[in-house]
Amino acid sequence: MNSVHSTSRVGDQAVVVTQVAERQWHALEDDQVIGRGDASRRPDGRIFLSIDSWQDAVFDQLAEVMLADLSKPLYTVVDEADIDLTSNWQRAGFTTRRREWEYVVSTDPQITGLDSVLRPEGVRIIPVGAAQRAPLGELYNAIRDEVQATIGWDSMPAEVLARPDGISLLDLSKYAVAAESDRYVGLVRVVPRRRQARIGLVAVRADLCRHGIARALLAHVLGSLHRSGIETAWAEVDESNGAAMALFEGLGARRASSNLELVRR
Known about the structure:
The chain is of the alpha+beta class. It has helices spanning 56-69, 83-91, 109-112, 133-148, 213-227, 242-249; strands at residues 3-10, 13-21, 24-29, 32-41, 47-53, 74-79, 95-106, 123-126, 175-180, 183-191, 196-204, 232-238, 254-264. The strands form two sheets. An eight-stranded mixed sheet has the order 6-13-7-12-11-10-9-8, with helices on both faces. It comes from Rugosimonospora africana.
């Protein structure tokens, strides 16, 4: 694919926007790439855009071509501190849909206060990688339905791939689980890294919220990370999720940055 969409001038040079793949565009000046645009479809079906260009006029030209080619709504994510990039997307007609805070939390139980946390009566913690696929899938789908009925699943930070038949593909090596009797009731999705782990999702069945299960899960996961030599973990929390914000702030987590999800409808 090499279709030309738009030609304009930036300063004294002609800039040509060319589609080079199904969801990929290049801005060319004298056959040199001076800007790139990409569109990616996430597991929930939404299309997110990214544009890489140092020149505002080139950004605008790429955005104009991409918006003309793609079906709306379209989304993008920007660092809220990047005022110039945010302004570029706003100029293209994007508006803020939601804000997501990035929290950094210590794994040291003496700092978080999780050293004294007791598991709720009747609840056991299944370590990362030891959960069984069928009950984990049942829990995940139940939590997803509960979230979708309230704040909406697309406000959650975790993305889980699905097969064409819609069944979620869960990586068992990334989940710790809380179990009660013969069912799973809560989960934490964690991705260990060399220096800082990512907490991708903390969730408990709606009928068992506020029973201390989430804190017990975090006590287990963060404690395990600490013993393995990882000192901090980070998590993304939608600002509308007051319970999750209170949970992390109660552990002494600090807000390190914020991202904006923008939408063009």
